Write a sequence for this structure.
């Protein structure tokens, strides 16, 4: 099946277009690594350096983040108010999602603890305690905030101002307001309902078009982000802490194979199609270390995969606060690493308390810069572990951040598919369908010109 390219009018295979985009991003990663190695950011270096490309990745991420608020709001309102009679309801979907999130993230914490106990990545690493955190972390941007309490989290869920929530890209608050707005719109009648629903439908359509335009710049943003990371840190920083980085990557692979893969099999998810759908969003999240950057592409690809728009637009943003699988695994592993590096033995009882603490404190802090470090510092303080260990982790945190962020995206995408399957609304198109491998939007489906090519 072929479709006409919007710019040239030439017929282009949708699967070919997706593979070409993936190849472009992989090529951008290779070029970024080469630029970072050739133009490192040494102290006192003059002339052009890889870190000077930071503005390119920053501009790309800003463009993507500017899409999130209108995209999430419009798609969720249309999904709920436009399908008010759908089976299950929003309340059921929310309850199922939260239960799923809690179970999977708890398993991720357990995988991190087990891996840390088996590999012991902190063994042999020395933490210089007693010098004070400020001395141990010269110039390091360690957050001063502490993880929010349960009451503070509940208060944070409801926005004081939707404009403020949208300005801060607080996905959870946007979701809550959009749900309330959509329920009110579903109860409305006559011209007011028709006009507002049509306006949100049009906004969703336009935002998907804008997202497609912005994603054309993804290879440039990806290449620049990788060049900056390698240029500032160098690959040599991995040598003394390579065991920690390797342990995290290995644990994430184990988590995918032992947890996410069985979930996909039980939910009867077509693995090849799912991998194709999440390949680009996870790669984008890996290279930019930003879940937000992958959100528009993930929503588009999941809709093409067969997940209803109302499910994808609800589960994905909600997962930012409640379903950070990669981050949860990283946090439990990092706590054990610091304890081992400091020569402190944590008995099983204390490790269970660490798990419970992280399970509670890792929720709802996604909007805080370097939120994983906020939670990690809070846990270290709670169990009397030296904060100087964070200095070691900061040296390689950029490399670990990329891996855990990509798994966060994959986990959220799988959660959306599982929720759609759970409520019986997953409609995977046939392989020969025009929608297969191409992201449909409301008007786009009607406007696609598909021709058979012999």
């Amino acid at each position: 099946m072929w479709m006409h390219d919007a710019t040239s009018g030439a017929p282009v295979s949708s699967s070919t277009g997706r593979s070409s985009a993936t190849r472009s991003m992989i090529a951008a990663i290779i070029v970024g690594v080469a630029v970072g190695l050739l133009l490192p950011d040494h102290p006192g270096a003059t002339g052009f350096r890889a870190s000077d490309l930071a503005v390119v990745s920053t501009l790309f991420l800003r463009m993507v983040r500017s899409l999130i608020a209108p995209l999430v709001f419009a798609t969720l309102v249309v999904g709920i108010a436009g399908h008010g009679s759908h089976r299950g309801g929003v309340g059921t979907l929310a309850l199922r999602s939260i239960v799923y999130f809690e179970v999977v993230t708890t398993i991720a914490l357990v995988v991190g603890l087990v891996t840390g106990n088996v590999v012991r990545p902190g063994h042999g690493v020395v933490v210089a305690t007693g010098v004070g955190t400020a001395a141990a972390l010269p110039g390091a941007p360690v957050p001063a905030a502490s993880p929010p309490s349960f009451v503070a989290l509940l208060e944070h869920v409801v926005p004081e101002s939707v404009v403020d929530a949208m300005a801060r890209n607080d996905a959870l608050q946007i979701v809550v307001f959009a749900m309330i707005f959509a329920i009110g719109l579903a109860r409305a009648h006559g011209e007011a309902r028709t006009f507002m629903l049509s306006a949100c439908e049009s906004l969703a359509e336009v935002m998907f078009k804008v997202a497609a335009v912005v994603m054309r710049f993804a290879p440039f943003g990806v290449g620049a982000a990788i060049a900056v990371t390698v240029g500032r840190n160098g690959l040599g920083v991995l040598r003394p802490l390579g065991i920690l980085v390797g342990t995290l990557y290995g644990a994430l692979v184990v988590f995918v194979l032992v947890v996410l893969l069985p979930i996909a099999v039980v939910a009867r998810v077509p693995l090849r199609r799912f991998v194709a759908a999440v390949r680009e969003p996870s790669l984008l999240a890996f290279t930019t270390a930003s879940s937000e950057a992958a959100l528009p592409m993930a929503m588009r690809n999941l809709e093409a995969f067969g997940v209803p728009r109302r499910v994808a637009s609800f589960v994905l943003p909600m997962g930012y606060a409640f379903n950070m699988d990669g981050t949860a695994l990283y946090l439990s592993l990092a706590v054990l690493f610091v304890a081992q590096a400091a020569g402190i033995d944590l008995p099983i009882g204390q490790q269970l308390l660490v798990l419970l603490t992280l399970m509670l404190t890792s929720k709802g802090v996604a909007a805080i810069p370097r939120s994983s470090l906020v939670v990690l510092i809070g846990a270290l303080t709670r169990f009397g572990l030296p904060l100087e260990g964070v200095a070691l982790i900061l040296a390689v945190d950029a490399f670990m951040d990329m891996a855990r962020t990509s798994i966060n995206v994959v986990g959220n995408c799988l959660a959306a598919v599982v929720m759609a399957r759970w409520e019986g609304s997953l409609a995977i198109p046939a392989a020969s369908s025009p929608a297969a491998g191409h992201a449909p939007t409301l008007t786009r489906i009607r406007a696609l010109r598909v021709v058979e090519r012999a």
